[in-house]
């Protein structure tokens, strides 16, 4: 997935992944992962309202996002005025307990992430094709401080159901990718049952994992 793919998505506002509200699995489980006051890293953050939920619940947030437009929209949509500066290769938007860097996640170093206590992935790992996902897992595993624990929301669907992104990420892939560094617990799998049945036209299921 080239950077241009995502820039075009944002320019054309093809952002079906963006949700108007904070994710219910974040609301339900994040307090198991980190206490308020913790600094939470949000890779590939887009203009996610999950960041507002984290801020409202007393966390500090550090996001990284490729698209400057996405970050500008985050602040505009929420009527917030950040301070903008340059931090090496990255453009920084900062306001109180929130910092978002515009730039490439894969260029972050351990020093950039030294203050991180926890991380939250929704629609980040599943946004990447298989080879990039391996790189993504390696980058998080190598650059995050030892204390950092994570909440990962992934999804699965049968092969051939659709083209990614989002890509299907199995429990096995989460286990084999992150298992060397983290102990992994699946907290919930949402099977998308409607009125007691799984709709045939939507075989997508969503899983949430705690990585300790
Ligand atoms: C599917 S969206 C999810 C956004 C957000 N997590 C959410 O839940 O709405 C993936 C985002 O990752 C960003 N992205 C893709 N590759 C990236 C990279 N290498 N570094 C930083 N951001 C990236 C895209 O611009 C896009 O906004």
UniProtKB/TrEMBL annotation:
Q: Which residues bind S-adenosyl-L-methionine?
A: 10, 44, 65, 122
Q: Which reaction does it catalyse?
A: S-adenosyl-L-methionine + a thiopurine = S-adenosyl-L-homocysteine + a thiopurine S-methylether
The EC number(s) given in the record are 2.1.1.67
Top EC group: transferase
For this UniProt record, give its keywords in alphabetical order, as a comma-separated list. Cytoplasm, Methyltransferase, S-adenosyl-L-methionine, Transferase
Assign the protein's first listed, main location to one coarse class: cytoplasm
Q: Pfam families of this UniProt entry? A: TPMT
Instruction: Give positions of region: Disordered.
Output: 191-212
NCBIfam families according to UniProt: PRK13255.1, TMPT_Se_Te
Similarity field = Belongs to the class I-like SAM-binding methyltransferase superfamily. TPMT family.
| Name this protein carries in UniProt | Thiopurine S-methyltransferase
Q: From which source organism is this entry?
A: Idiomarina piscisalsi
């Amino acid at each position: 997935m080239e950077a241009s793919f995502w820039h075009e998505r944002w320019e054309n506002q093809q952002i079906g992944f963006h949700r108007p509200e904070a994710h219910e699995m974040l609301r339900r489980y994040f307090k198991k992962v980190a206490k308020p006051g913790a600094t939470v890293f949000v890779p590939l953050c887009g203009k996610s309202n999950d960041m507002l939920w984290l801020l409202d619940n007393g966390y500090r947030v550090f996001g990284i996002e490729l698209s400057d437009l996405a970050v500008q929209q985050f602040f505009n949509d929420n009527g917030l005025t950040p301070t903008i500066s340059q931090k090496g290769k990255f453009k920084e938007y900062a306001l109180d307990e929130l910092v978002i860097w515009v730039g490439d996640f894969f260029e972050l170093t351990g020093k950039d992430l030294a203050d991180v206590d926890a991380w939250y992935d929704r629609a980040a790992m599943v946004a990447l094709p298989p080879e990039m996902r391996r790189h993504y897992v390696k980058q998080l595993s190598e650059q995050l401080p030892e204390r950092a624990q994570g909440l990962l929301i992934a999804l699965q669907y049968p092969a051939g159901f659709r083209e990614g992104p989002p890509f299907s990420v199995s429990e096995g892939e989460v286990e084999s990718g992150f298992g060397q560094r983290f102990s992994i617990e699946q907290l919930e799998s949402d099977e998308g049952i409607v009125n007691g049945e799984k709709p045939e036209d939507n075989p997508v299921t969503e899983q949430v994992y705690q990585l300790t």
